[in-house]
Amino acid sequence: MITPSKCFFFKSLTAADTEGFTTIRKKAEAEIARAEARGQEVSGEVYQETMVAAAEGMASVNSVLDTQYDKEFGEQYDRTCLFLYNMLL
Fold first, then answer.
1. What CA–CA distance (Å, rounded) separates 84 from 81?
2. Does the predicted model carry a pTM greater than 0.85?
3. What is the count of structural domains for the chain?
């Protein structure tokens, strides 16, 4: 079964959905600025932790969207999504 998370072309995020990503970016930028101000090289961990946080945030957003689409569209949505997805293959 194709789930709404795989049917990416129906998803639309609002500004409220992406606020957490702005926070992640700002924290990463602050950490980079601190390292540069100390004359140190930025640790690869900063970038790794930023990517992990963003991926976890996106997984959370996708989970909420999946639940929302299941409630709103149910089986009809799955059939339409599957049809459109297969057309793209």
1. 5
2. no
3. 1
